[in-house]
Amino acid sequence: MAEVVDNFDWDNVGANSFGGNYSAEERARMEEMYSDTLTTVQEEEVVRGVVVGITDRDVILNIGFKSDGLVPVSEFRDLPDLKPGDEVEVFIEEQENANGQLILSRKKAKIKQAWKAIYDALENDTILEGVVKRRTKGGLIMDLDGVEAFLPGSQIDVKPIRDFDIYVGRRMEVKVVKINAAFDNVVVSHKVLIEKDLEKQREAILNNLEKGQILEGVIKNMTNFGVFIDLGGVDGLLHITDISWGRIAHPSEVLQLDQKLNVVVLDFDEAKKRISLGLKQLTPHPWDSLPEDMGVGSKVKGRIVNVADYGAFMEIIPGVEGLIHVSEMSWSQHLRNPQDFIKQGDVVEAQILTLDREDRKMSLGIKQLSEDPWTRGDFAEKYAVGTKHNGLVRNLTNFGLFVELEEGVDGLVHVSDLSWTKKIKHPSEVVKVGDRLDVLVLELDVANRRLALGHKQLEENPWDTFQTVFTPGSVHRATITEKNDRGAVLELPYGIEGFAYPKSLQKEDGSQAENGESLDFRVVEFSKDDRRIVLSHTAVYNQSQEEESRASKFKKKTPTATAGGVATTSAADVKKATSQPAEKSTLGDLDALSALRDRMMGSEREAGEQKLQAQASKKAAPAAEEEGLVARVTKAASDAIDTVTHAAEDVVDRAKHLLDSDDDTNKEDKA
């Protein structure tokens, strides 16, 4: 058991404890020395640390904090020679996690430093270096110390780049041209660095540039209208027309991309820095190599290089072309599309019509290689007046149509020579362009190359027959096809047309005949020379009233009483007949002659109608519509014949009755 000290000084215990012997000044100095050994850190800032150890998974770093921090080894792949004692920059994520561990990140430190460098580069116009990670649509993706930046394809080089893959993995110097902080997007350019280097070269070239100077260049771009050539810092345009003396459709026919070639300076604009180049000017002009014996009348062979609306261009040799006008392609007088004769790429033979070596112009002709049909020896005999031909309708006009009988031989068919029966206003009512048409030669003028043709002349003039059918006073069935203020056009049998005045269209009930109606019409006027028939429907029923009135007069002159079936005559009638025998005899004779004349005209009319029916039968087509038309025409003709026959029989009967009455009167007088 310990011995208890009775005289222990409890008041001095604190003074003799640990640190109790330090004065206030000494204590303050000691606290300051201790605080200097500790580092105060803030989260989300970059600090420098010393590697104190390396394990399989982590790198241990001392940043002067109360504890060391850990960083994954994977973040030090770019430092394969890392060892203890090396200093690196790290980013403080957390001062103390749940395990009391300091969390650091070298990757985030690099990104933060990279963004700082990017903003500084944009503000100070400095150059950054990065690695191309991969290609993307329209450009490349670069790694700028952990920050991805977009390098557009147009900003890679001063010349167009056709293969972006060749840049993947390369280190390139770029300049920052745009930053989108909201989306952390960075756009860089490598082209601006090249342009600065080329600007000095461009100025040197432009200062020494002269017209006619020959330069070496590389084709950097190719278009439909020409190629752009890099002359070593400055571009020039080689137009497609200055590539070759001959015609080419595209520069790729004779040139290739990245091809080196010599060109001559044709012109340049210092203000706009535009240079026009030429390639064909380095070779002699092909016109200078034409044979001396080549002249007007010479036959040449070449390739059609262009076809226009007015003609075609034929290339005899590259750079030497001649125009074949469309009028020189055929003897035909109707100009057609040159595509109907030749196509681009065809190889043809032609004759030189004109040749101007100074202006380098040449006109050619193809038709001159064949004989002019109008100068052939058998032409006048072949196309003599009255000969029949079949031709192709080439053109329609208001006054007629042109028919091509053979290549170079055309004739005119006047609109009045298309039909005997119809009044045709325009040839399109009968034919159309491209149809075949039978024609008859009416006139031939070889000196003036004129040929008059007719179509209706192939048939007999039906108006000679119409004159016997449509006699004045005859009645026919007709259909109104057109009606206006001046009158109506009527369709008569056999395809002939007639005309009726408005006053002649009034029907028996007082109404007017309308378009499309079929009625009986009486012929009022017939003119063969004018091919005109005037008809009237009103005259049909008015004429019937006159005939009824005339018939009633005839009845008054005949015996009215009979006895035992024998006709009796009163004394007054006998006396009247005896006192005027000559007048009755003369009137009977005239009526008999009239009846005989009507019979003769009826026979002639019947013969004419039969002739027209035979002609209509020959023209009848197998189509149902045309057969129906023939049937209607035949029926109309038959009705007309019946009407005329009945009228003639009635007149004959009346004449006989008058003659018999005169004979009976004479016999009674003699008795």
From TrEMBL:
<keyword id="KW-0689">Ribosomal protein</keyword>
<keyword id="KW-0677">Repeat</keyword>
<feature type="region of interest" description="Disordered">
    <location>
        <begin position="542"/>
        <end position="567"/>
    </location>
</feature>
<protein>
    <recommendedName>
        <fullName>Small ribosomal subunit protein bS1</fullName>
    </recommendedName>
</protein>
<dbReference type="GO" id="GO:0005737">
    <property type="term" value="C:cytoplasm"/>
</dbReference>
<dbReference type="InterPro" id="IPR003029">
    <property type="entry name" value="S1_domain"/>
</dbReference>
<feature type="domain" description="S1 motif">
    <location>
        <begin position="125"/>
        <end position="191"/>
    </location>
</feature>
<feature type="domain" description="S1 motif">
    <location>
        <begin position="386"/>
        <end position="456"/>
    </location>
</feature>
<dbReference type="GO" id="GO:0003735">
    <property type="term" value="F:structural constituent of ribosome"/>
</dbReference>
<feature type="domain" description="S1 motif">
    <location>
        <begin position="297"/>
        <end position="367"/>
    </location>
</feature>
<dbReference type="InterPro" id="IPR050437">
    <property type="entry name" value="Ribos_protein_bS1-like"/>
</dbReference>
<feature type="domain" description="S1 motif">
    <location>
        <begin position="473"/>
        <end position="538"/>
    </location>
</feature>
<feature type="region of interest" description="Disordered">
    <location>
        <begin position="601"/>
        <end position="627"/>
    </location>
</feature>
<keyword id="KW-0694">RNA-binding</keyword>
<feature type="compositionally biased region" description="Low complexity">
    <location>
        <begin position="610"/>
        <end position="623"/>
    </location>
</feature>
<keyword id="KW-0687">Ribonucleoprotein</keyword>
<dbReference type="InterPro" id="IPR012340">
    <property type="entry name" value="NA-bd_OB-fold"/>
</dbReference>
<dbReference type="Pfam" id="PF00575">
    <property type="entry name" value="S1"/>
</dbReference>
<comment type="similarity">
    <text>Belongs to the bacterial ribosomal protein bS1 family.</text>
</comment>
<dbReference type="InterPro" id="IPR035104">
    <property type="entry name" value="Ribosomal_protein_S1-like"/>
</dbReference>
<feature type="domain" description="S1 motif">
    <location>
        <begin position="44"/>
        <end position="107"/>
    </location>
</feature>
<dbReference type="GO" id="GO:0005840">
    <property type="term" value="C:ribosome"/>
</dbReference>
<dbReference type="GO" id="GO:0006412">
    <property type="term" value="P:translation"/>
</dbReference>
<dbReference type="GO" id="GO:1990904">
    <property type="term" value="C:ribonucleoprotein complex"/>
</dbReference>
<feature type="domain" description="S1 motif">
    <location>
        <begin position="212"/>
        <end position="280"/>
    </location>
</feature>
<dbReference type="GO" id="GO:0003729">
    <property type="term" value="F:mRNA binding"/>
</dbReference>
